[in-house]
Amino acid sequence: MKIRLFIITELILLVSALVNLLREPGFVICLALAIVVGMLLSKCRWFILKMMMAILSLIMAVFILGNFYIWAAIVIAVIAIVIFVKVPQKDQNFDIIDTFYDEREGVVFDKQKLNFSAASAEEYYRFDDINIIKSISDDVIDLEHTNFRKLDNVVMIRKFAGNTKIIVPNNMAVSIDFSSMKGQANFFGEKTVSNRERIKYYSHDFSEEIPHLRIYVDVVYGDLTVIKL
DSSP letter string over 190-214? Predict the structure, then answer.
C-alpha cells in the first residue's frame, strides 16, 4: 500500500510539473526549437546545430530545475529509497554466511546477490503450469485441493510489488526460487530476509519420487510466504 501511494504521488507531481512547464512560454519555445533542431540533426551533423541543441538543452534544464514539483518529486523519491531499500537486519535465527543448513528440517538456503491490485485479493486456480505477470498486487494462491502431475509442476510469478502467499498440499516436494530487491521470505516457518538477493530453497523430501512443485517468484518489493496446511 505504501508503494502504491508513493507511485501515485510521484505521478501526480510529475504531471503537475509537466503542466507547469508547458505554461512557461520560454520553455515551450525552447522545446519547439529543440524538436526542430533534433530533426535537422538526424539529417546533417553540422557543428552549429549541435551547439544550438546544447544551448537549448541547458536552458530547458534551468526551467526544469527551477520547477517546484520536480524538486518535490526528487525529495519524495529519496525518502522512499531510504525507507524501502535500507539494509535490513538479519534474522537472529540465521547465520551471516550466504549459504547455510538447518539440521532440524534438512533445509538449505542459498543466497546470491542480484545486480541489477489491491490488498488481500485472493485468486484460486485449477492447476496447470501457472505463469502470472502483474504490476502491484497482494495474492493468495491456494493449491491444497489441486490434482498435480506426477512429474514437475511449475508456478511462476513476476510483479513489481506486493506480497504473495502460496498454500501447497502436504504430499508435495517443493523447491523455491525467490528474487527480491526488498522483501522477506517465509518458507514453511523458516524465515529470512532478501535484500537484493536470490534465495533458493529445497524441501528435505525433494529427492524422493513424489510430485514436485517448483515455485519461481520475482518481485522488486514484496514478501513471499509458502505454507502447508
Answer: EEEEESSEEEEEE-TTTTSSS-EEE
Q: What is the pLDDT of residue 164?
A: 92
For strands 190-194 and 173-187, give the pairing.
antiparallel
Structural domain boundaries, residue 80 = 2-84
Cell, residue 191: 524465515
Question: CA 192 → CA 83, 99, 141, 146, 224, distances in Å?
Answer: 19, 12, 21, 28, 10
Low-confidence stretches of the chain (pLDDT beneath 50):
86-106, 112-126
Question: In terms of residues, how long is the chain?
Answer: 229
Is residue 181 within 8 Å of residue 196, measured between CB atoms?
yes
Same structural domain, 42 and 152: no
Say how far apart CA 137 and CA 119 lie, in whole Å: 6
**How far apart (Å, rounded) are the C-alpha atoms in residues 152 and 105?**
22
Position 6 scores a pLDDT of: 78
What total of structural domains would you count in the chain? 2
pTM above 0.70, yes or no: no
What does pLDDT average to over the chain? 79
- Residue 214's contacts (CB-CB under 8 Å, 6 or more residues apart) are 152, 153, 154, 155, 174, 175, 177
Q: What is the pLDDT of residue 86?
A: 47
Same domain for 112 and 177, yes or no, is yes
Q: Which of 57, 84, 111 is the last residue of a domain?
A: 84
